[in-house]
User: Which sequence fits this backbone?
């Protein structure tokens, strides 16, 4: 079930200020990542780090500003998590195409739009899932209901691709009963085979004895 939120209209200055904050965080990340990559790949790590910081600052600022303006002008009065996914994908496409064109040429417009739209869609979807899970935990805690958390092994066993299965006590007891039934059936078949062998062996043993009895006795 999707939760809806009333749309909060923000001023352009508020959206731009928030975008600059996000851009500063993105630029800082780009500075450290670019500096590390520059030490490995370039003889001028400072220039490499500065270029990376600028690109990530521009991407973060453009993306967050675009997302804010899209949500601010959303046609519905309420915004669902799915609407935020669409807005994030559109903002990612706009930011990726714009920064790709400015920094690497027009040939990178389409690849940048595709790549960063996927990043926006995937990132917002993951955030929505985690936020819904956290909200559910908070509501359960507020109501006094506690659900036991599965262990890591249970989570791995619940995945479709894993061959491991976690057995409950009832399932394990049922499997033991099925094995006992199979063992009982095999024992019954073996008993029948033994009985047939006994029945086949009895006439063969009686045959020579009866032939001796039929011979005339000497006086």
Assistant:
């Amino acid at each position: 079930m999707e939760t809806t939120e009333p749309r909060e209209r923000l001023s352009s200055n508020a959206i731009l200020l928030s975008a600059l904050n996000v851009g500063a965080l993105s630029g800082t990340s780009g500075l450290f990542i670019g500096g590390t990559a520059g030490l490995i790949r370039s003889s001028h790590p400072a220039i490499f780090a500065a270029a990376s910081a600028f690109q990530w600052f521009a991407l973060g600022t453009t993306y967050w500003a675009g997302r804010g303006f899209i949500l601010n002008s959303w046609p519905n009065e309420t915004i669902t998590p799915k609407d935020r996914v669409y807005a994030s994908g559109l903002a990612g496409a706009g930011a990726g195409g714009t920064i790709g064109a400015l920094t690497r040429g027009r040939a990178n417009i389409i690849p940048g739009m595709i790549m960063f739209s996927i990043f926006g869609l995937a990132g917002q979807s993951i955030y929505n899932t985690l936020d819904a899970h956290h909200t559910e935990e908070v509501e359960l805690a507020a109501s006094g209901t506690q659900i036991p958390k599965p262990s890591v092994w249970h989570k791995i066993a619940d995945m479709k691709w894993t061959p491991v299965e976690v057995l409950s006590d009832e399932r394990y007891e049922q499997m033991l009963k099925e094995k006992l039934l199979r063992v009982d059936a095999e024992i019954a078949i073996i008993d029948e085979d033994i009985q047939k062998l006994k029945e086949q062996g009895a006439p063969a043993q009686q045959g020579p004895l009866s032939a001796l009895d039929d011979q005339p006795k000497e006086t």
In short: The two ends are 108 Å apart (CA to CA). The mean pLDDT is 80. The CA atoms of residues 17 and 218 lie 131 Å apart. Helices lie at 12-41, 45-72, 81-104, 109-143, 152-158, 169-214.
